[in-house]
Design goal:
It contains 14 helices and 2 strands; from the N terminus they run H-H-H-H-H-H-H-H-H-H-H-H-E-E-H-H. It is mainly alpha-helical. A two-stranded antiparallel sheet has the order 1-2.
Length: 336
């Protein structure tokens, strides 16, 4: 009985960490291939083929992390799963439509006659855009405590646009790594504009979170927290400044490593995740349910934890392996 009493304290936190890590990895990895779909707008047919080639070996594995996060929410925090999915039913349904549309378009664009390929290219763009918009809208409503009013929905709409910009930014950074020539230069240009939208999203969430919750305000601005936490926003500001500087320099300075903007983007997403996790802990449903109130029984969590400790490293392992095998510049797209 002692082990289950103790597990009632650490198992919910362990599952929250696993779920949060899955979401973070998903946002970075599937974020860049969603961003590439968004960047289809304005790209030539030849560039679109090269953009698809840059994500072809990875995009299925990237989406696995979303399934992992949703599965952990369902089995570890069933009460929270019900509350969150009920509040976000419509955007979740639209997100699934977007994911299905882009998945079908990804395959069909390679199989149809060239005259019809443009329609599936548009479908791939539309599915990517819809997925990004709905994910941003859900994030915005979550920050607002899942309350739905004209003001909170307007904020969620702003965050949805910023998430589109953030995904476009990380997608452009991926193209900087994986492509060359005119497409790489276009990616550099697009990254400069998209990083501004990402910065607006950062600022909006940073301002709104403490304003809508006295508890979050106290966690950030009471003493000595305000001093101890100051490095987080300062570091984010430095990374944004460095990114803007490097993106301006890179077209003229071939000595700057091409992977730096992508890694910096990963750092920004990670800093945002840390800030949100700190703000909302211990709540999994903002100001309604804590991790411990929403968690399954300790006996069930213990069994599920053993399974998660097997599945999680397997997913991480084959994801890392795929990136190692297909490292380097993207090659011409063929389906022979």
């Amino acid at each position: 009985m002692t082990i289950f009493a103790d597990s009632a304290q650490w198992l919910p936190l362990a599952f929250a960490i696993l779920m949060g890590l899955s979401i973070l990895v998903y946002v970075i990895l599937d974020g860049y291939d969603l961003g590439i779909g968004i960047l289809f707008a304005g790209a030539s047919d030849q560039d679109k083929d090269r953009m698809i080639a840059s994500i072809g070996p990875f995009w299925d594995a990237n989406e696995t992390w979303l399934v992992m996060a949703a599965g952990l929410l369902l089995v570890a925090f069933p009460l929270a799963h019900g509350v969150i999915l009920s509040a976000l039913y419509l955007p979740v349904a639209l997100m699934l439509v977007g994911l299905i549309l882009r998945g079908v378009a990804f395959e069909f664009r390679a199989k149809v006659k060239s005259a019809h390929k443009q329609y599936w290219n548009r479908a791939f763009f539309a599915g990517s855009l819809l997925t990004a918009l709905t994910q941003g809208y859900m994030l915005g409503l979550y920050v607002m405590g899942l309350e739905q009013s004209p003001a909170t929905m307007a904020f969620a709409a702003l965050i949805s646009v910023c998430v589109v910009g953030g995904y476009a930014f990380i997608g452009a950074c991926w193209l900087i790594i994986k492509t060359e020539g005119a497409l790489q230069q276009r990616a550099l240009h697009l990254a400069k504009g998209a990083v501004i939208m990402l910065a607006i999203g950062f600022i909006a969430i940073s301002i709104a979170s403490p304003l809508v919750s006295a508890r979050i305000y106290e966690k950030w601005f009471a003493m000595p927290q305000i001093i101890l936490l100051a490095p987080l926003p300062l570091l984010a500001g430095l990374v944004f400044g460095a990114l803007v500087y490097l993106l301006r320099r890179m077209p003229h300075d071939s000595q700057i490593p091409q992977w730096i903007p992508f890694v910096a983007g990963m750092g920004l997403f990670t800093l945002a995740f840390i800030g949100l996790a700190y703000s909302f802990y211990p709540y999994v449903v903002p100001n309604q349910l804590t991790l411990y109130e929403a968690a399954s029984a300790p006996e069930s969590l213990m069994i599920l934890f053993v399974g998660a400790m097997i599945v999680f490293p397997v997913i991480a392992g084959y994801t890392a392996f795929s990136y190692w095998v297909f490292r380097g510049k993207a090659r011409d797209l063929t389906y022979d």
